[in-house]
Write a structure and sequence with these properties.
The chain is α+β, with helices and mostly antiparallel strands. Helices cover 43% and strands 23% of the residues. It is built from twelve helices and twelve strands. The strands form two sheets. A seven-stranded antiparallel β-sheet has the order 1-3-4-11-6-9-12, sandwiched between helices. Helix 4 runs antiparallel to helix 5 and helix 7 crosses helix 8.
């Protein structure tokens, strides 16, 4: 279960010390200081996957700094990668300096001094952070140090799916069964390779995880197989082999995702006033009749009967 930390219940005079201590205790030894007059506030969710640390991080304008003294004192053996989601970052390390806007990410070496200024026009910044073992990343991508503090574009289906994969891994409800650190290191290596102009270098197993994430994020309007294959830089033959490796087909997997998402929507009290047809369309079904037939074939009950039985199940529980 993710560790959640927020300054909301902390007295304003004590927030800076609390915020710094929480960050250091959870995932990174840094010094912090506010930028400008805005009152300090922040929250983060933190989870560990093997030796990888994943964080969703949101704060008021702050400078996060790790100088040579702190590096020597605290020690570290990690690279960190920030996915910029809101606001901007100004990263400085080893003579390199980059301004990171939403739609970009940045790599930095936690074994060396760095400074990261998180601010932005909304007086709020949000990033996803992946901290991975340095030796593991360097085995996958030996040139990693050359890209530190330089903007890495997160455009394209692969990069967007990697960001979505990291975001889902932080949320307990979306955590992947059997996921381990090698997936995340492989995906970060892919981002760096693409930023260097190289091929993605993903195996079919690694591609399956990303394509699955992509399909879930576009469930209402999934493009044909040839278009998705092209977006991921693979042949249509390889695309279909990705699914064959998992004893399924593209069409069957999409249907499975749609019907599972349909079931999830039917269980949400906030959507109880929406019609079956409206929910079916959100899942990409052509019409309510198709959705009903598919749902009954998977779960042995109609969507309407399933939804009607939910209050009774909750009451019994």
């Amino acid at each position: 279960m993710p560790t959640s930390v927020s300054t909301d219940q902390i007295h304003p005079a004590e927030r800076q010390a609390f915020w710094t201590e929480s960050i250091c205790r959870s995932f990174a030894h840094v010094e912090t200081r506010p930028i400008g007059p805005t009152r300090v506030s922040g929250r983060f969710e933190f989870v560990e996957v093997g030796r990888v640390k994943l964080v969703r991080f949101d704060s008021s304008p702050q400078c996060y700094r790790r100088d040579a003294k702190l590096v020597s004192k605290a020690g570290s053996d990690e690279f960190m990668f920030d996915f910029q989601r809101r606001g901007r970052s100004s990263m400085v390390q080893a003579g390199n300096e980059g301004t990171i806007e939403p739609g970009y990410g940045v790599l930095y070496d936690a074994r060396r001094p760095f400074e990261d200024r998180l601010d932005g026009p909304e007086q709020r910044s949000e990033v996803l952070i992946a901290a991975v073992p340095a030796a593991t990343l360097l085995r996958k991508f030996p040139q990693a140090e050359r890209l530190c503090a330089r903007p890495v574009p997160l455009s394209g289906a692969i990069a967007r799916s990697i960001a979505a994969f990291i975001r889902a891994a932080i949320q307990l409800s979306d955590a992947r069964q059997g996921q381990d650190e090698t997936d995340i290191v492989a995906y970060l290596s892919t981002l760096l390779r693409l930023a260097s102009g190289d091929d993605h270098g993903l195996t079919r197993t690694e591609l399956f995880g990303l394509i699955d994430t992509y399909l879930k994020g576009n469930i209402a309007a999934i493009r044909p197989a040839p278009a998705i294959a092209a977006a991921f830089g693979i042949s249509e033959r390889t695309f279909h082999r990705v699914f064959a490796d998992h004893q399924t087909t593209f069409e069957r997997h999409v249907l499975q995702l749609r019907v599972e998402h349909f079931r999830t929507l039917l269980q949400q009290p906030t959507l109880s006033e929406l019609s079956i047809a409206a929910l079916a369309m959100q899942c990409g079904f052509a019409d309510a009749a198709h959705a009903t037939r598919t749902f009954r074939s998977f779960f042995g009950v109609t969507p309407r009967d399933f939804r009607g039985a939910i209050p009774a199940r909750i009451q019994i529980g």
